[in-house]
Amino acid sequence: xxxxxxxxxxxxxxxxxxxxxxxxxxxxxxxxxxxxxxxxxxxxxxxxxxxxxxxxxxxxxxxxxxxxxxxxxxxxxxxxxxxxxxxxxxxxxxxxxxxxxxxxxxxxxxxxxxxxxxxxxxxxxxxxxxxxxxxxxxxxxxxxxxxxxxxxxxxxxxxxxxxxxxxxxxxxxxxxxxxxxxxxxxxxxxxxxxxxxxxxxxxxxxxxxxxxxxxxxxxxxxxxxxxxxxxxxxxxxxxxxxxxxxxxxxxxxxxxxxxxxxxxxxxxxxxxxxxxxxxxxxxxxxxxxxxxxxxxxxxxxxxxxxxxxxxxxxxxxxxxxxxxxxxxxxxxxxxxxxxxxxxxx
Length: 345
Description:
By secondary structure, this protein is of the alpha/beta class. It has helices spanning about 55-60, 85-105, 110-140, 155-165, 195-200, 220-225, 235-245, 250-260, 290-305, 325-345; strands at about 35-40, 80, 145-150, 170-175, 205-215, 230-235, 265-270, 310-315. α2 (about 85-105) packs antiparallel against α3, α3 runs parallel beside α4 (about 155-165) and α9 packs parallel to α10 (about 325-345).
């Protein structure tokens, strides 16, 4: 696997508009990290735009400086993004069109037309899941670290499945404003609000789900957490705030969160887990959330605890009215990759 030759690449030079992600000259075959863009959003029921997230992050990434004060120079291992797949975009457009009247009606109910549309959306989502699974497996087989860039938060199911097969007992650190534990929300089996219900009921190799930053929760979701026997552990945003009010340092809180995880960890981060001032364009912003430094503090805690970040995804980045969401998303993704590589040393 090639590494950058400092004599031929200037990390401080301005990135050209036709360069790869972060302005890098890598192709996937010469990269340790292969980013799989998944421009799919079918079931978002409030805001939208996450299907444009991968393209927006790619554009914003060219403004990110490549030296990181904590993670060093992760770019040297090679980071490349695959072309945005037109087939997946088409599946997403069709699914969104079919889902819209179902969402507007609050579900299909007894309406046969809406029920048929729901079934078609579920079918398109299943095709997307299989595509993500196959792509993730392909790059894992090539000894790369595939990274999923969404798209709505339904898209990483296939990646989590592939990673869990490689790492039985896998732990997931899930950053989100929402628990995403709803069963077939609005009739959509693969809803963005159902990703972790599906993961925990369909992927037995996942050993632990640790959720951080939750502040919107349904009653059935709380019951699922409580009935999990410790397989799902939730750290609610109001509790995190209360602990800080009591004088606990964020480092100690992050250490407590990370202590719940096994050795091998997969990061599944919805950008709305952050304070919405950092992601105002995301589809379902909720007051509260983690600051930038608290979010990066979770990565520090993982490395401090000698956890191994084996894979990751970042979802729900929506360009919004400005480039701010994509700017934050690109920088967060670089940090996540950097700490993942650092954890594997």
